[in-house]
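Design job #97: recover the sequence.
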């Protein structure tokens, strides 16, 4: 394409210079661990930045570190420089703001960027606020109004502005960010940095259930796959919480081991799959008893899930039932869902607009939550969860009985002291060596449901 334009002797559109596959933003060395509200009064108080994310610069580089944090209203950026910001030096921050369309791949000085950007914040010494530039897809245009507030303390420069500077971001959105000092891209020239948006809106907890540690063994006998990507505690669920900011429901899954991303999924975690089954009318026996394909588990006869969440790194979905009662992707809800890692709680979070859950009060619903192994190459008919064999292998869990209908659930949410233990629930089923095709709910382990009432 570019060759054609050049051969015709015309300027090719700048848009062609934007690679189709954009490098994924790099994770910071330290992630956001809570709201940050530094006071901009000419000093940088380290404690005020303790919850901020930190990217380290290379040894001797002009930008030694880039920090970002936010609270409910504002975004805070901090640049720790090798030298105080003196005359004729400039910091430029390029943002690929959420919802913006006019992207471009070069700086104000027309040097190449690492990734596309739509907005630029220009920071110059001696000024009280920054300049904002917007892209039209080819050039940068300075805006009349200055943005935010600047503060200098020694070698550090701070910038604060309303969070709307990140565009139409909401919880979990990562805005690709590049820090440029005197025209040169800093910190990383391989991929952009990323500012992750947290609303820090006060959440109301609707249901929180602690799960015991050390029960990542399914019915009591399962062992981990032997490949080094699986760390002890990766499949140990520690808690589940459902909370709301009124517009969205937040489903939070705590994990014992530090959440890492060994296979580099877009959602920030790799080996786990979290399922949530929601019965909006417990006791009425509407909906489906069978869990998603391959879980080899079901709900009790008086229950039936009406909406389910399938949370994993690559294909997370909101699932509903079709006219035949079979699970299907609820595509509208799935596209509106955000799945991300909250390092402050060592948890995976899925946030979904509440409107997709229809009528009813979550406090009256019943929930079943389980943790399984994510699998990119699943067995036939299995929705991407890892097999459990008699003997563990590199990519197979071990410890299963010699039958065909044992569950693939590794940890089931059941609080200490519950009526039925996880071991009892997952091991009580009519063991069978025949194919699972054609089997019904009563041929599998029965998973108990939890509700606000039941966990009081
Ligand atoms: Ca557990
Ligand atoms: Ca139901
Ligand atoms: Ca458990």
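Job complete. Output follows.
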């Amino acid at each position: 394409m570019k060759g054609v334009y050049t051969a015709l002797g015309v300027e090719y559109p700048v848009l062609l210079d934007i690679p189709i596959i954009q490098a994924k933003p790099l994770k910071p060395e330290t992630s956001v661990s809570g709201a940050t509200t530094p006071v901009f009064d000419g000093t940088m108080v380290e404690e005020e930045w303790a919850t901020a994310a930190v990217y380290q610069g290379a040894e001797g580089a002009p930008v030694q570190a880039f920090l970002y944090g936010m609270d409910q209203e504002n975004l805070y950026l901090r640049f720790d420089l090798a030298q105080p910001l003196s005359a004729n030096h400039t910091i430029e921050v390029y943002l690929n703001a959420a919802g913006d369309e006019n992207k471009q791949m070069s700086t104000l000085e027309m040097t190449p960027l690492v990734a596309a950007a739509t907005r630029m914040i220009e920071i110059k010494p001696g000024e009280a606020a920054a300049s904002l530039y917007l892209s039209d897809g080819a050039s940068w245009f300075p805006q009349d109004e200055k943005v935010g507030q600047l503060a200098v303390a020694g070698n550090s420069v701070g910038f604060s502005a309303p969070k709307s500077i990140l565009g139409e971001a909401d919880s979990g959105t990562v805005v690709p960010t590049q820090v440029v000092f005197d025209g040169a891209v800093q910190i990383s020239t391989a991929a952009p940095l990323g500012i992750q948006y947290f609303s820090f809106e006060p959440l109301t907890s609707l249901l929180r259930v602690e799960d015991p540690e050390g029960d990542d063994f399914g019915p009591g006998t399962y062992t981990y796959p032997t490949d080094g990507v699986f760390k002890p505690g990766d499949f140990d669920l520690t808690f589940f919480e459902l909370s709301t900011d009124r517009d969205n429901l937040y489903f939070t899954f705590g994990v014992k081991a530090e959440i890492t991303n060994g296979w580099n999924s877009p959602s920030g975690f790799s080996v786990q799959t979290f399922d949530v089954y929601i019965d909006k009318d417990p006791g009425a026996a509407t909906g489906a008893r069978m869990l998603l394909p391959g879980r080899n588990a079901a709900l009790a006869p008086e229950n039936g899930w009406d909406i389910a969440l399938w949370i994993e790194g690559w294909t997370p979905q909101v699932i509903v039932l079709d006219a035949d009662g079979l699970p299907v992707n609820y595509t509208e809800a799935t596209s509106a869902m955000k799945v991300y890692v909250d390092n402050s709680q060592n948890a995976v979070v899925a946030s979904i607009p509440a409107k997709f859950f229809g009528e009813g009060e979550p406090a009256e619903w019943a929930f079943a939550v389980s943790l399984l192994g994510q699998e990119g190459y699943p067995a036939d008919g299995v929705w991407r969860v890892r097999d459990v064999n008699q003997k563990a292998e590199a990519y197979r869990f071990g410890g299963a009985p010699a039958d065909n209908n044992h569950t693939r659930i590794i940890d089931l949410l059941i609080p200490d002291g519950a009526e039925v233990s996880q071991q009892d629930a997952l091991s009580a089923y009519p063991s069978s060596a025949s194919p699972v095709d054609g089997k019904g709910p009563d041929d599998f382990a029965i998973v108990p449901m939890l509700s606000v009432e039941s966990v009081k």
